[in-house]
Amino acid sequence: xxxxxxxxxxxxxxxxxxxxxxxxxxxxxxxxxxxxxxxxxxxxxxxxxxxxxxxxxxxxxxxxxxxxxxxxxxxxxxxxxxxxxxxxxxxxxxxxxxxxxxxxxxxxxxxxxxxxxxxxxxxxxxxxxxxxxxxxxxxxxxxxxxxxxxxxxxxxxxxxxxxxxxxxxxxxxxxxxxxxxxxxxxxxxxxxxxxxxxxxxxxxxxxxxxxxxxxxxxxxxxxxxxxxxxxxxxxxxxxxxxxxxxxxxxxxxxxxxxxxxxxxxxxxxxxxxxxxxxxxxxxxxxxxxxxxxxxxxxxxxxxxxxxxxxxxxxxxxxxxxxxxx
Length: 325
Ligand SMILES: NC(=O)c1ccc[n+]([C@@H]2O[C@H](COP(=O)([O-])OP(=O)(O)OC[C@H]3O[C@@H](n4cnc5c(N)ncnc54)[C@H](OP(=O)(O)O)[C@@H]3O)[C@@H](O)[C@H]2O)c1
Known about the structure:
Helices cover 37% and strands 12% of the residues. Helix 6 (200-209) links the parallel strand 8 (188-192) and strand 9 (212-216). The strands form 2 sheets. An 8-stranded parallel beta sheet has the order 3-4-5-6-7-8-9-10. Strands 1-2 form a two-stranded antiparallel sheet. It is built from 11 helices and 10 strands. The protein is of the alpha/beta class. Bound molecules: NADP nicotinamide-adenine-dinucleotide phosphate (NAP). NADP nicotinamide-adenine-dinucleotide phosphate binds at residues 18-20, 43, 110, 168-169, 190, 216-219, 222-223, 252, 254, 269-274, 277, 280-281, 307.
């Protein structure tokens, strides 16, 4: 339960720390503290803009003897502006340098969305806009076949820069297509999943294909409330059922949601920069949800997706770009 087998003698810790929206000013300290309290799985990305600070935190933890590099599972993600095969290795090497590691445990294609290249010197992280300083900034799609990007991802494994490659925000049809040509299969699919977006068919499909399913935003709404993409009423942590299950186990609602995530066989990567919550979110291995509790939580499903490019790309980045429909 504490880790999920990937084969080849590899295991991914089932609880990781997510780094999206962790302030640069805090990221190094949070990283070292997370490793100190027991996190061994760090979910990073070029797009989060804080990899160089996470790298300082990793280096600091190793220097202090809190862990060895090989004890950590470090994930990073290829941003949308680097899908062209000639940019994939450059982007990976930039993340490696920033994270101060000489290999990644996992490198994911962040979205099945390819945008026009933006050189590092011009802007890093590149973000969604092609030219944020233009009078009408907008995304600039620049299609690259996923097969070409995947081929370049496979070269990273062959060169020893990454141990595993995977995908994020992909649907079953895209995965099925990818599996038809992949010489190296995706080890992990990372997608949004929580009790309001259970995704049973996607999980079952991944389990059938031996692809580890990692749930991002495992707490659901809280991450999206401050950025206007959800409201307090959308939070599964306020569900009476979740609160009563939490009370019965003397755990918090957040711990119940995370436990539900790992007990259904997914990895979860909650984000927090709060030291008490870092500990709380990792303390989910000393209780077990009953079959009825697992089913009751799954029945809260509303197919409610907070992180949908088909919605936010149009409202925030001037481009209608659905990917799930
Ligand atoms: N692949 C992708 O496209 C993608 C997209 C989104 C996210 N992700 C990854 O998934 C990670 C997690 O997703 P997320 O950050 O969207 O959402 P999340 O981890 O589900 O929720 C984070 C929010 O919940 C709060 N929180 C954390 N622990 C809590 C607790 N014990 N009690 C109450 N509130 C708590 C945090 O606030 P405080 O920080 O104040 O505690 C923050 O506002 C990201 O950091 C990122 O690594 C990947």
